[in-house]
Each structure stands twice: as structure tokens, then as C-alpha cells.
Amino acid sequence: xxxxxxxxxxxxxxxxxxxxxxxxxxxxxxxxxxxxxxxxxxxxxxxxxxxxxxxxxxxxxxxxxxxxxxxxxxxxxxxx
Length: 80
Prior knowledge:
- This protein has helices at 20-28, 47-58, and strands at residues 9-13, 37-42, 61-68, 71-77.
- It is built from 2 helices and 4 strands; from the N terminus they run βαβαββ.
- It has a single domain (9-77), classed as Translation Initiation Factor IF3.
- Strand 1 (9-13), helix 1 and strand 2 (37-42) form a beta-alpha-beta unit.
- Helix content is 26%, strand content 32%.
- The longest helix has 12 residues, at 47-58.
- The radius of gyration is 11 Å and the shape is globular.
- By secondary structure, it is of the alpha+beta class.
- Strands 1-2-4-3 form a 4-stranded mixed beta sheet, with helices on one face.
- The relative contact order is 0.28.
């Protein structure tokens, strides 16, 4: 899961239900520099659709998204 990328910000979104994981990433993306990365960990399977859709619509990039155990782990790069 892209271990070589060091996130600028880590978000624990476990227990939050759709659409809150995506909303929290959206709110916090401005807290990292352009080119910076947020590592977000969610438990709601809806995040697997919501976060990539949000990133695409806002011009940001999902570097990786995957399931690790019962958690969904995302690396989201701020592009602009």
C-alpha cells in the first residue's frame, strides 16, 4: 500500500458513515500543501466510491485505495 509515500496528514475516519469520510477529507485537503498527501482510514465501504469520486470531481488524486483487514485505506494527493 504505497509505503514509500509519507503522508502529511493522517485522518482516522473509522466509525463515520457515508458521506462523512469524504466530507472530512474534503474539509482537510486544504490543510496539506499542494503535492501533499492525506492518509485516510475509514470503515464505511461507501468511502471506496465516495472518496475517488470526490477526488476526480475536484481535481485531486487518489494515489492508492484498498482494503486492509476491515478498514479502507486511502492516500489522497492534493493537486491544486
